[in-house]
Amino acid sequence: MSYTVIIKKTAQKQILRLPKNYLEKVKKTIFTLEDVPRPHGCIKLTGSENVYRLRIGSYRIVYSIEDKILTIYIFDVDDRKDVYR
User: Fold this and answer.
1) For residues 71 and 75, what is the distance between their CA atoms, to the nearest angstrom?
2) Does 61 reside within a domain?
3) Looking at residue 29, which CATH number applies to its domain?
4) Which candidate, 65, 61, 64, 66, places its Cα nearest to that of 76?
5) Per-residue pLDDT for 85 more than 70?
6) Does residue 84 form part of some domain?
7) Residue 85 lies in a domain
8) What is the dihedral of CA 25, 29, 31, 33, to 10 degrees?
9) pTM, full prediction
10) What is the DSSP code (8-state) at residue 49?
11) What is the per-residue DSSP string for 12-25?
């Protein structure tokens, strides 16, 4: 059972602005979310029902999982100091 990953426009722009050494790691992690939506190391954010974050160095991927329709929405990819604002 494979999930569909949808990356919001703002997150796409954030990904393109990442340093090269993080860009490949983030892309690889996003592709693995299709098969494993809750990988080891993901943390469920408090105050929301289905929003998670993944840590990649000092960068975070914030996404939500819709299990009923097998879809993952990535809506924020940014440095940890800016991602939760």
Assistant:
1) 13
2) yes
3) 3.30.2310.20
4) 61
5) no
6) no
7) no
8) 180
9) 0.90
10) S
11) HHHHHTS-HHHHHH
Q: How many domains does the chain have?
A: 1
The answer to whether position 30 is within a domain reads yes
Average pLDDT, the chain: 91
Q: In what order do the strands lie in the sheet with 59-66?
A: 4-7, 71-79, 59-66, 51-56, 43-44
Give CA–CA dist 61/26, Å, rounded: 8
Domain that holds residue 41: 4-79
Q: For 24-36, what is the mean pLDDT?
A: 92
For 41-71, the pLDDT digits (tens) are 999 999 888 999 999 988 999 999 999 999 9
Strand boundaries in the chain, DSSP class E: 4-7, 43-44, 51-56, 59-66, 71-79
Structure tokens at 73: 């929405």
Residues 13-42 as b/e (b if ≥16 CB within 10 A, e otherwise) read ebbeebeeebeeebeebbeebeeebeeeeb
Confidence of residue 1 (pLDDT cuts 50, 70, 90): confident
